[in-house]
Amino acid sequence: MTDLADVVVVGLGPGGEALAGELAEAGLSVVGVESRLVGGECPYYGCIPSKMIVRAAGTLAEARRVHSLAGDAVVSPDWTPVAERIRSEATDDWNDAVAAKRLADKGVRLVRGRGRLSGPRTLVVDGASITARRAIVLNPGTEPSIPPIPGLAATPYWTNRDAVAATAAPASLMVIGGGAIGSELAQAFARFGTRTTVLEAAPGLLPPEEPEAGELLAGVLREEGITVLAGAHIDRVDHDGAMFTAVVDGHSLAAERLLVATGRTSNLASTGIEVLGLDPAARFPEVDAFLQIADGVYAIGDVAGKGAFTHMSMYQASIAAGHILGLDRGGAEYHAVPRVTFTDPEIGSVGMTESQAREKGLQVLVGSTDLPSSSRGWIHKAGNQGFIKLVADAEQGVLVGATAAGPSGGEVLSALVLAVHARIPLATLRRMIYAYPTFHRAIETALTNLA
Questions:
Q1: Which structural domain, as residue segments, surrounds residue 186?
Q2: Model's pTM, two decimal places?
Q3: What percent of the chain is modeled with pLDDT above 70?
């Protein structure tokens, strides 16, 4: 027997859950298929628990700055409240009963298992067949990417999932990968007293961002006692039952724990898209403006290849749901994708970097300013490192990219996201009134410096 539904959603991460719930509330019969936890990576292993760690580590850093601003303070780090908060407030000890009920209350029927296409509108879940009358939505997410370093696979290394589940901060930690996840967790553990080393193969940290951002962050991490080795080649990794050893450019490094944070791997091959005539070995499928990879088959979230962010998955879910329901929500646009690395300082960015804009052949203008030279940065004093960098298309007279690095960089970014997304003319941005004294007022100075 073949089960029937109007829509089948494979993968109930943030976007899949939101889409399934909206369609069910609109009156469609919806089956949601999930092999892990309803809610996906973000609430259990990613965004939420990791930012709880970052928040806790940030309070320690602020307390250590008291001596330069307000007297003296004694700081005694304790990981226990962090571990307890993650289990009680974020993950419910990695139990998705609340999320599953939330879906059921909206009318979504949950099927546990791995879903794989067997035809244009048919899915097989652990041997059972489900046919969708209107659409199938693929949202399988990604898995931590593990580099082929000799010896690594045989060791008990951590991924981000293990790190957020830690019940104690290790005495020492090596982090392979200086991107957003690796940098955030490296700084956080170091602030709890962990002796930390970051190994990044690229010339600098945060490779996708402006080089100034990576340089700023590397300097801050080193000031905090973290060893940062960029351009590092790891020859081998071993574990003797108690300690990890990594041979890096001929030198041996040791640590109690090893965190691998080298990006994510798409689960596209698991979806069975070859039955649609598509290449399962591709890193990402080709999606149209409404996230379709074939008639009535949609791909959203990480697997769509437009940015592995919860906000991207939710954005795409809304567009795909609207298309399925016949609503006019327009197609997806990706010229103003925001992203934030929640280190201290925060690194918020949107749109193109300077090099990307030049590679595209734009007539580029660049303007920047350092936050410590702003009034708010001067007032803030301790922990005031940062900058604003703007990338403009001189011919069109609009911003095409921007970076806000510093205290609350992700919040300052909001004005820049709006400017890039709405293509607000530079002349309009220059005529705006910027509140004094704020960090976002530095945007005005960066606009003045465009050249």
A1: 152-263
A2: 0.96
A3: 100
